[in-house]
Amino acid sequence: MQRWLILADDLTGAADCAVSFARRGHAAAVAWGPAGIAEETVLAIDADSRRLPPAQAAARHAALLAAPPGPGAALYKKMDSTLRGQPAAELAASLATLRAAGRPALAVVSPAFPATGRTMEDGRVRLQGAPLEASPLWRRDHTYPDADLRAVLEGAGMTTALLPLAALRAEPGAAARAVRAALEAGQDALVCDAATEADLAAIAHATLPLAGSVIWVGSGGLAAALAGALPMGHAPPPSRPPPRRTGLLLVVGSMAEASRVAAAEALAGGGLRRFGLAPALLRAGPGEWAGTAGAIAATIAAGEDALAIIEEEPGADLRQGAALAEALAALLRPAGLAAGGLFATGGETARALLAQLGVHSIRLLEEIAPGVPLGLAQGGRAMPVITKAGGFGGAQTIGHARQRLRAWLQQEAQA
């Protein structure tokens, strides 16, 4: 059975790539830190590098690749579908590390994720059909001057070629020929347009036979295409902990509009108690938030579901995101220890909270919506967990996640 290593810059990205393999019957887990390294067919590692400067992000990925999980593992480098973080520096360092170990490597790059509205056309990322640069996501958080992916990669010293959409669709075998041409030319990366899942499937089928010579770089869309091109696996399901008869903890640590809309829709459905947490309160420290932390934990212990959300702060400094996530996680630790299940949106938020609960990995089970995985927390506080990237998902996503956690717990109670 082909093993896979997925390297990601945040937890939700690692999970939404690996869950595609779990859906196909392969044992898949997302882990962080040495204690979380598991013997799975598909292991996704959260490098936690989204907020790091380029040199530090690159060094972290190179270090993780210096000790791969056994020979012959295929490598998938997860990049954010809207180019957040430092994907170019991370990829350049990954290619250099692989080549230093004697492994030729062409990066097949496509961050398209059509199920969430992300596409690639003319080598540029588009969101819901419009240029990424015109979106609120780009205005709120971007690293590069624009969304021209070839220019982004070349800015990190890589040579690139482009497989345009028209060429990809022109005839069967076009993708395979483009990959071989890029390999023969000694290119570092082949940037591939893709606007549909069928486009990504064509790329996956063309490149899988070249696993010894290429690595894949993309979001959950290309990962799903690769998983779909593999034979079905037959991994036994993991053992499940007995359910707790307490409430759920739902956490929104992302400032993205999609997550805010979904939180409001979930609250409108009723039965969910809201706890708004101001950034000033989180910065004030434990002495100021003890009462709030106790109220959230008491709500959950009484069997009610609680939604904790960081309030918006005009002019907020995005560089404070990691510090706020850590403070939020510390505040919510008592609630997390009491909860029967957890939903978290925002990669830094999810990782910080799970670390507070002593969790070192998540064994992935299913995908409740595109890019929204359900899994079992491993180590520490074992419970069902759903994670979601902050920037995508529909208005019903959080409400649906809550319903799925409730249904999962009910099924376990009746088993």
From TrEMBL:
Residues 5-226 form the Four-carbon acid sugar kinase N-terminal domain. Keywords: ATP-binding, Carbohydrate metabolism, Kinase, Nucleotide-binding, Transferase. Residues 249-398 form the Four-carbon acid sugar kinase nucleotide binding domain. Pfam families: NBD_C, SBD_N. SUPFAM superfamilies: YgbK-like. It comes from the Bacteria. This is Four-carbon acid sugar kinase family protein. It comes from Teichococcus aestuarii. The lineage of its organism: Bacteria, Pseudomonadati, Pseudomonadota, Alphaproteobacteria, Acetobacterales.
